[in-house]
Every structure is written in structure tokens, then in C-alpha cells.
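Hello again,

I reread your note about wanting to compare the complex against the isolated chains. To keep things tidy I'm splitting this into two emails, and this first one only covers the full assembly. Below are the input lines as submitted, including protein chains and any nucleic acid or small-molecule components. They are followed by the predicted structure of everything together. The single-chain runs will come separately.
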Amino acid sequence: MLELKGLTRRFGATTAVDGVELVVPDGQMVGIIGRSGAGKSTLLRMINRLETPSSGRILSGGRDVTALSGRGLREWRRDCAMVFQQFNLVQRLDVLTNVLIGRLAWQRGWRRLMVLLAARFTAEERAMALAALDRFGLAETALQRAETLSGGQQQRVAICRALLQKPRFLLADEPIASLDPRNAQLVMDALRDVNRRDGLTVLVNLHHLDTAREYCDRIVAMQAGRVVFDDAPGALTPERVRAIYGISEQEFAAEAEARRRAAAAPARLAVA
Amino acid sequence: MSGAIASGEAAYQAALRQRRRATLLGFALLALCLLASARVSEAYPATLLAGLPRIGEYFSRILPALRWDSLLAGTETEGSLAFWMYRLDSWAWLLLETANMAALATLMGAGAGLLLAFPAARNLGAGTLAYQLSRRLLEAMRTVPEIVFALILVWAFGVGPLAGILAIALHTAGACGKLFAEAIENTGLGAWAGVRSAGGSWAQACRFAVLPQVAPNLLSYALLRFEINLRSASVIGFVGAGGIGEELYKVISFNYYEEISAILLLIILAVCAIDLLSERLRHRVIGALA
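Full-complex prediction:
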């Protein structure tokens, strides 16, 4: 169980996340929706501790992880894997090694040194990585450089990397915002599969209300850093959307699409 | 309308005059500074004119006395190429030693520079202390010339190539480390966040998220440094730190004029050959890795 208690993050004068209270039972797939700048991204990054909370607490199974550092922090990060909008793979490394990066936090003793110096993982770990890639139809790409893959493939490689961490949570920060509809569906299917078959708790930031309704057990809507809706997907009616955001669902979708187009262009630049 | 054109033109002319005045003033100041610094450093035109012919004279002295009829004769015949290069075997050996010194020093220096470049890259957030320490250390190694390091190391390790290798390696670490750190600072941090979010340590993130991205750049810098180090290695022997420089210094101080030109020619040939080779290698490496 993941509990957020009064979680707040301030950047100077602006408050990106404002006193978020959330309890997520194990195995749930939660969609976090909101317009850009609503604080969804900062919220997920705080849970993984890529951002440090200004105040509030994060509890995992009753254990406070807000102030962890050193090895404790690395093990917490290993337990709550992250997937990013821009995939964040090492472009010039092959796909297999990218996936094996998920094993870094598991290395101990001299193996840790071997991995650091020579990037030598064990045969079991390579088998794990190949099995994960095969599961999402990417086994053939194992020795290709990550930069040669399409966005949708790269995102599925990122999910493989996350799986190799053997995490309990998967935090997906706008995983489909840079993808076309077909690849978006593949990636969302992969996330659902991970949730159903591996039993991971999935928190996924989304722009598309329809996607959230289709895939998630529960929808949390954010506005200006606060949670303004937290209920089953069925309860998010067009009337509720208009009440929360002041715009119709079509306008919301159009805004999300415009953002996707804007985000897709620099994504290709970053690869080059 | 025409009023707007006229006033616009007037403003343009005024701006042009202003810029011209500033440029002229700048040049006048520059000329003044040049004159002042020439005076301080005693670079008088008269001295320059008096000394110029003597450069020519020196070169005419060190030129070998080659004769066409005996050009290809043996080492015993005066005027032959073999007579001029009569110690080619030991000089060639010294040149090889020099090239080896440069290669080893580049390897050691670039390796040390690489290790220091990660804490010295601002974007990786190694902590203020590590950042300041590595930056200052790199600066210190870079600012001290090789020849000064060599003087100290010859005193410590005795006359020979080891002192030269270490001296060049130290300077290389400083020079490469700074360039490496800047290459690292220019890489995106997406992969870094990816590795860190997976529980990777700082060192693991350096190794897996940064190193593969910057490797072609770093390799290219290191090879360029190898070319520079070859030149350094051929003069560092002046202070007894090994290589062909020792021999060059000896023949210069004993005024063995023909041998000076022979060694100089050999050094130039070797440097050119390695320059060409390493440039090819560099381009191939970049092509293969990019």
C-alpha cells in the first residue's frame, strides 16, 4: 500500500503539488489526469524521489520513505520503477544493456564492481532481460542501439527495464504523450498486462480521459497541484469534467493532442 | 512618409558614425597597448632587424654539406646522406621511445582526466566539495607546463623517460579533464534520470548513462592530445626526461651543427607521419562510433 500524506512541492513562489493525500492499495491501476502544469509529473517524480518533497510524507506499507538516502534510497527507487514521456533510454547503448540497467540496484559485492567496470551481467540476468523483451515482441532488437527504435518500441524497452527492477510499483509519467495512437495503445496494453499479470501497482499520468477510463481502475484528477477528483472511472462523466476543468471533454482532448504534437517533434530531435 | 524616411536615414547615419567612432577608439587603444607591451618586453624593432639575419645564418650552418656525386655513398664518405644521418639507428630508437612516451602519457593522462571529469561536470551534481576539488586539481595540472613537471620529476625519479611520461601525463590529465567535463556538460540528462530512477548509484549513472553518450567525443579529444603530446615528448628530454629531446639538447649545446638538422628533420618527419595516421584514425573512430 502506498500512502501520500500532505505531499507538497514548491518551486520558488509556485506550488506545483499542494497537500496531496492519496492511499493506493496494492495491485491497483490508477490514472492521474490533469492539464499540463497540474502537478502530475512532479507528484510521480516525488514518489520516486527524483524530486524532494517540500513537506508531507510518503509511506510504503507503513514505512516512511520520504527521508531515505544512500542505499536505502536506491533500493526504494528500485522498488518503484519509473517510465518517462521521453523514454530516457541510453540512446547509444544496445537495447539489452538498456534493459539490464534495471538490474543495477541489485548488484552486490564484487559483482557490483564487475558491472561498473565491464558492464558484465550474469547469464540469468541476460535471460531475464531477453524474456522481458520477448514478452513485448522486441527480442530481435536486443543488440540494436536504442536510438534505432521507434518511440513506441523505446517505451516498451523502458517498461522492460522497469520490470527487471522487480519493482512493486510502476510510475509512468505521460508514457504515451509522445506516441501516435497505435503505439500509445501498445504501450497502454503493456502497462495493463504488467498490472494484471505481474500484480504491480501502476500509477500512470495521462492527458487522455478516454484512455484513463478504458485502462484504469481508478481515476485521480489534479488541478493546480491539488487532487480534485478521486473515484471510479465511471464517475468521471462529461459534466464532472466540465465542473472540474471548465472546458468540455472535446476541448480537453484537443489540448492533449496539441501537446502530443508539440512533444513529438523535440522527441525526434533528442534522438538525432 | 518622406519625413519618416528622412529621420530614419538620419538615425541610421548617426548610429553608423557612433559605431565607427567606437571602432576607431578601440583600435587606437589596442595600438597603444601593443606599443606599451613591446616597450616593457624590450621588443625593439632595431633588435628584431639585427637578429633576423642571424636566424638565417644559423640555418645555413646547420645545413648538411651534401654533394651530388657522393649522395648515396656509405657512412665513410663526406657529403653523403649516410654520413649526415650516421647515427640514424640510435636516433630512430630514440624517436620510437619518444612516440611510446607520448602514447603512454596520453593513455594515463586521459584515464585520470576521465575520472576527474565526472565530478568536475556541473550538471551531474557530484556535490560542491567534489566539484571544487576536481576543478581546482584539473586547473593546477593544466596550468603548470610539462617542462616544469618534468624538472620536478627528474629530481624525484632520476633522469629517464619515466619522469617525462609522468610529466606529460599530468598535464594531459588537466587539459583532457576540462574538455571531457565540458563534453559531459553538453549531454542531455534524460538517460541520467532513467538510470537514477532505477536505483542506479552516481557512479553507475556516470558509467551507463553518460559514458556511452560522450565516448566518441572523448576519444577524439584524446587522439588530438596524442598528437600534441608527441611534440611535447620530443622536447621534454631537454631537462633529462627521456626521448629524443635529450639528444637534441646535447647536439645543440655542443654545436654539432649537421646533427641538429638531421635530428630536427627526423622529428618533423615522425610528427608529420603520426599526425597523418592519428588524424585518419580519429576520423575512422568518429565514423564508426557516431
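For quick reference: The interface with chain B takes residues 48, 50, 74-79, 81-82, 84, 86-93, 97, 101-102, 104-105, 115-116, 119, 158, 161-162, 165, 270 of chain A (CB under 8 Å).

B.
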